[in-house]
Input
Amino acid sequence: MQGLSVKLRQDSPIPLDVDLACTPGELLGLVGPSGSGKSTILRSIAGLYRPEQGRVLVDGEVWLDSKRGIDVSTHRRRVGIVVQSYALFPHMTAVGNVEAALGHLRQPQRGSKARELLHLVHLSGLEDRRPAELSGGQQQRVAVARALAREPKVLLLDEPFSAVDKVTRGRLYEELAAIRTRLAMPIVLVTHDLDEALMLADSMCLLQRGRILQHGRPLDVLQRPATVEAARLVGQRNIFPARVIEHRGDPAATILDWRGRRLEAAHQPKWAPGAEVAWMIPASKVVLHRRDRPSRGEAENPVTGSIVGHVALGDTTIATVRLDGSETRTLTYRVPTHVAERNRLGLGEHVGLSLLASAIHIMPAAEPGKRRR
Amino acid sequence: MDWTALWLSLRLGMLTVMVLLPVGIWLGRLLAYRHFRGKELVEALVALPLVLPPTVFGYYLLVTFGAASPLGRLWQGAFGHQLVFTFEGLLLASVIFNLPFAIQPMQRAFEAIPVEVREAAQCCGMSPWQALTRIELPLAWPGILTALVLSFAHTLGEFGIVLMVGGSIPGDTKTIAIAIYDRVQAFDDAAAGTMSALLLAISLVTIAATFYFSRRVGRRLG
Output
């Protein structure tokens, strides 16, 4: 089998129960809060961590199989790794760092290969600098070149963008995306940043306490989480209980009863009428009605309420609205700050909102008694 | 001026350092990288010569290596002479009482290498031996050098243990520190003064040189 396949299980010290795969050329994002085990999975692939039970296969090569007692030591696993601190060798120059990973080549070829790799990451001219003489972004590029030097069968990226400023990070994203097109190995990216996964990953594993909550395309995981737990983990705030009333044809839709309010949702026929479910809508899909004149789509799941929270975060304003006829039910929406200003939105203002039916996603009802985290 | 004693001290210092280099690297790395049961005890044993009076230490070495002890008898059987009151015995004692001076700086030096850097060496395909010679030793060498210089200088100056374990046999176990004491006892202030000044100069120069080199390397690695 081509690509990477990882199966890990243990109860302590870090609980792990994962089974994942990554095909050649695919970039798999492992996303989750700290302590979710994402780095441990990565380290297990590299052989830097030994799980109680596990199997790691790369292109049919067995790197770890606890049942058969196989555990290939790290220096014999062909991995490339970039970690948050970059872990460059401080006593070696940039080119020396890359050459250090070219042990499989003969000595005379190493220099030119290392320079070629540094050129790939746009570091030509800085070959003879030591890490201390390079900026954070440049150090990250050396680390990437060094990771690629070994012609790895898997490329492992452990929060490689966390230690640089935002502007540099943006550039490094672009560079990685560009380099990626030339790489034919599975790439695993560990990050706690959903947006990063959304930008870079082809598929994404959402992890919580060592388990995979959901594995899928990043946008799907974000907008169509499989469970309430996954929804909360990806930062969704508009999550509510409801009951399925019926499925309607033409235009196809699923009708929900949201505590006495009729809601039209995207057609999701797998939920039987009468089923108790949960539903969610991304804050960006809650549309504000214009206050000066009626706007298009106002008939789509309209609700009204008063603003009880209003925070401008630069270009985006996030507001919380307490719905009319309810003491506790609140909706969160997001609008561009200039729209909020033009509409003179603020605390206490009364607003009308529409919940876009196509963005309403239905999930199994939250398990009772499960704590919010 | 007792040149024999000076030469003996220098030889003892050199040989002590040569034995301590591999021992210190091995034990220093072990203590720096690994967690094991009884690690604190090992660290305490290594540090013991720092706090124990040299005479107490010398006494136990005498008991352990003396002709009546199993170790002493083993040595006698193998080499035909006893271990204590010989240069070899003195060397062994010197190695042991210098353990803290050698191991602690080396342990600190290896501890200062970030674990990610050691892991990166493995991920670059380096075998443990290559990682040691190409990454760890170049990064730790200021600490290793400090350790060796401290041990060397300390060997030149040690008195109590040398007297207990070595006696004061000219050419065999009479080091310069003991020669100085001898000269003072004999009211030969001139010789004692010359030798003391020489010992002071050697110690100062070696330690100053280490500080200088360590700082230069520190700047280079920034």
